[in-house]
Amino acid sequence: MRRIPFFFAATAACVLGTATPARAQTEPDAPEEGTPPARKGFQLALRSGYMVPFGKASGAPGDTMGNTFSGQVPLLVDIGGKLSPNVFLGGYLGLGFGGTAGETSNVCSRDNVTCVTASLRLGIEAQYQFTPDASTNPWIGYGIGIESTAFSGSNGGTTYSVAAAGWEFGHFMAGLDFRLSKTIGIGPMVDFSLAEYTTISVKENGQTSNGTVANKALHEWLLVGPRLVFFP
User: Fold this and answer.
1) Residue 11, Cα to own-chain centre: how many angstroms?
2) pTM flag (> 0.85)
């Protein structure tokens, strides 16, 4: 009996014997056993950690973020809804508190002034969640909004503050949620924002003066910390 060359036999096996497995590979994976199913609807998340500044508050010489603001501890709230199991659309609101740094810190110490800093951010955001029906769900996000950062000092009866505000052009986020149940998830996240101050307000002993930032410059905040999500 004439033998079929190995090449033709192997080719026939690939064509005839692997047709069924090829179809099976296109079928979606079953959800992980014991994990909550993917869902749509309301979602709320709380983010915190430690946030450090970079860049320049303005284009003036020496006016870097690190010359006034130290790191801050923020609390940010993401609230909105999942339009699909993968897509979240909503808004963010955050408050951060910290101390002073650089030359500002030296002046506060020299003049025996109690100095603190605070920041506020508000905007809209979208997130994409890669595996919403798995126990571990990586996600990325982008937001845009406004930012206001203030420095204040007090010494006896004298109080004063300086606040700058502007657009937050880019709010880039990424993280990993561990979906512990259908109501709770937790995991690490990183948040990087890019913004520019355009207005400034100075207040001293009840007198306020407002103006615009003449020499605008870009600055950044980097936040690393945990995220607690409700209805992951």
Assistant:
1) 52
2) no
DSSP, residue by residue, 137-161:
EEEEEEEEEEEEEEEEEEETTEEEE
- Which residue has 């126990």 as its token pair? 135
Residues 66 and 53: beta-carbon distance below 8 Å: yes
pLDDT in tens, 5-36: 433 333 333 333 444 444 444 444 555 667 89
Rounded to the nearest 5°, which phi and psi values hold at 30?
-75, 150
What does the DSSP assignment read for 43-90? EEEEEESEEEEEEBSSSSTT-BGGGTEEEEEEEEEEEEEESSSSEEEE
Is the domain spanning 6-230 CATH 2.40.160.20? The answer is yes
Query: How far apart (Å, rounded) are the C-alpha atoms in residues 91 and 174?
Result: 16
Query: What SS3 class is residue 170?
Result: strand
**Nearest residue to 150 via CA among 219, 193, 200, 204:** 200
